[in-house]
Specification:
The complex is a heterodimer of chains A (about 170) and B (about 375). Chain A has helices spanning about 5-30, 50-65, 125-135; strands spanning about 35-40, 40-45, 65-75, 80-90, 100-110, 115, 140. Chain A is of the alpha/beta class. Classes of the chains: A alpha/beta (about 170), B alpha+beta (about 375).
């Protein structure tokens, strides 16, 4: 059977760890950062678009978040916004192995633009290119905001926007 | 001057322009794929200076099917059959993390016997995928025995999977809440005997493939991906573990039953193509060990699934779950708005993350080293394109 004591200790450790990280980030950036949720091994913070690069540098240098597990966007037409999520993970800090921090920001839907994290975390390269073509978000500083997975002659709106409808559905 | 002479003059001028050499002209452009048998449905363009690769541009997307968009139009159960299409040989793992993410969203736990059955299917599929990959790796290094043996032995695993799930590939066995049905009566004995046989064969594999001078010469010291670069590029799975980072999701963030299973994380520190080819093989050996342990510890009876409504509604929120597949971390990010369909599904696959290392490794190496490097990345184009 599961060793309950070690399970509880692991849980405590993960709670302390996420508290520690979130507190340090909030302390550094103040009210420009909002903690959305803090679950076991998963936390999400929402930052202002202007400070996303500084936040990523801070998280990489102070806590060891050195790669992205995933990066994507979600379209919210009712709020007229697109949310961009980076799922950050760590390969250097063994305490952070099970932990995934979602660094997210919002941008205007009509002219979606955000700063690219490619110089801080090179692993975002293809994820950002995919987000550019699937949601039309332009990443400032990314060398190749261009076609990636879609056909070369694609001439429609970005397909993961909510106003793009599948045929027959 | 006649018009013919004019034309000849013009042609001469043109040919002079073409012959005029610049640095760019010395390079030869080569398009590898998508029809090339060595790449699968994937193309990359390389520029060669003599025999050395100086530039690589990858061009995926030939098998992009819009899985993420399709998810938004189907409910949580009807998503299962199309989600396993990107990687049909490893379909248990790609539906595993989806089911975990949906369960996390709804807030249910799977019955204990169901968790064991999931893990068994997942490990069998890992073996199935790796044998298939090894077979193709062999044929592209000109080792046809290496193609025949794993392709034949894979049938044993497929028979087991057919017995357990009803299908050789694309089982649709994992569903949110558990697995579709219980295992048949004589499965345990059959599985143990096949696994015993497979372990004997693995010893022979090691002898004939991994100690083979031809194989070693073409892979050892080729395509070095140092630990720092592997971390920087965010690669995953066997590619990461071959660069000396012992990171296996089954160990670092155990899901379902894996925290009760005793196994070792396989990793090497040589960072070359040989290590990347050897790690999946070591994983297969470890999987045989895990399956035996799972069959041993499995409860005799019990439910295998939590019964859910067919159009179950998740509360508004999001979840992010990952499993260790045959090609590394496979994660789902599901956003729910409280309806019976997911609002947004993002699939992050190991292949998509590992291919970032391809231009990095190929630039500066020789053209002859391209096949061993490309196949050592454990890349499955269809999974990367989704």
């Amino acid at each position: 059977m599961i060793d309950n004591k070690s399970e509880i200790e692991l849980k405590k450790k993960s709670i302390l760890l996420s508290k520690d990280i979130l507190n340090s980030v909030v302390e550094k950036f103040g009210d420009r950062i909002k903690v959305i949720y803090d679950k076991r091994n998963r936390s999400k913070i929402m930052v202002d678009p202007e400070i996303i690069v500084e936040t990523a540098i801070f998280l990489r240098d102070n806590h060891g978040f050195d790669h992205v597990e995933s990066a994507s966007g979600t379209d919210y037409p009712k709020e007229d916004q697109i949310e961009i999520n980076y799922h950050l993970g760590s390969y250097v800090n063994p305490d952070l192995f099970p932990y995934v921090l979602v660094l997210s920001t919002k941008t205007n839907r009509d002219d979606p633009k955000t700063n690219s994290l490619i110089n801080i975390l090179p692993s975002v390269e293809y994820f950002e290119r995919e987000t550019y073509e699937m949601l039309g978000v332009y990443f400032i500083g990314h060398p190749r905001n261009e076609r990636f997975l879609l056909p070369e002659d694609w001439a429609d709106i970005p397909p993961l926007r909510k106003d793009f409808r599948l045929k027959g559905r | 001057m006649s018009s013919l002479d004019e034309k000849i003059d013009e042609a001469k001028k043109l040919s002079m322009q073409i012959v005029k050499e610049s640095d760019e002209d010395k390079l030869m452009t080569l398009s590898v794929g998508p029809q090339h048998p060595g790449t699968g449905h994937f193309r990359f363009i390389i520029k060669l200076d003599g025999d050395y690769i100086v530039y690589v541009n990858i061009d995926p997307g030939y098998v992009h099917r819009g899985e993420e968009k399709m998810c938004e139009y189907r409910n949580y159960f009807t998503n299962i059959p199309h989600l396993e299409r990107p990687v049909i040989h490893d379909s248990a793992n790609i539906t595993y993390s989806y089911s975990l993410a949906v369960e996390d969203l709804i807030g249910i736990t799977v019955p204990r016997r169901g968790q064991f059955l999931r893990a068994i299917t997942s490990e069998l599929d890992r073996i199935n995928y790796t044998l298939y990959w090894l077979a193709i790796y062999g044929i592209f290094l000109g080792h046809s025995t290496m193609f025949m043996w794993p392709a034949a032995d894979r049938e044993l695993v497929l028979d087991l999977l057919e017995r357990l799930t009803g299908h050789r590939i694309t089982h649709a066995f994992n569903i949110p809440g558990g697995v579709r049905n219980d295992m048949p009566n004589n499965f345990k004995e059959k599985c143990l005997s096949q696994i015993n046989y497979l372990e004997k064969r693995l010893k022979e594999y090691e002898h004939i493939f991994y100690n083979n001078p031809l194989f070693r010469q073409r892979t050892e010291g080729v395509g070095i991906l140092s630990k720092e670069d592997a971390i920087k590029l965010g690669v995953t799975g066997s590619v990461l573990r071959a660069s000396g980072v012992p990171y296996d999701i089954r160990k670092v963030e155990p899901y379902d039953i894996y925290n009760e299973i005793d196994f070792n994380v396989q990793y090497m520190k040589t960072c070359d193509s040989f290590a990347r080819a050897y790690i999946p093989f070591l994983d297969v050996r470890e999987s045989c060990h895990i399956i035996r342990e799972l069959l041993d510890k499995m409860p005799e009876s019990g439910d295998v699934r939590e019964k859910l409504l067919s159009n179950i509604k998740g509360p508004p929120g999001e979840s992010f779950k990952r499993v260790e597949s045959g090609r590394g971390a496979l994660s789902y990010h599901i956003v729910s708005d409280g309806t019976s369909r997911p609002y947004r599904v993002k699939i992050s696959t190991g292949s998509f993350r590992n291919i970032l290392a391809l231009p990095f490794l190929l630039v500066g190496s020789m053209l002859g080293d391209m096949p061993p490097i490309y196949w050592s990345l454990n890349y499955w184009p269809i999974e990367a394109d989704r």
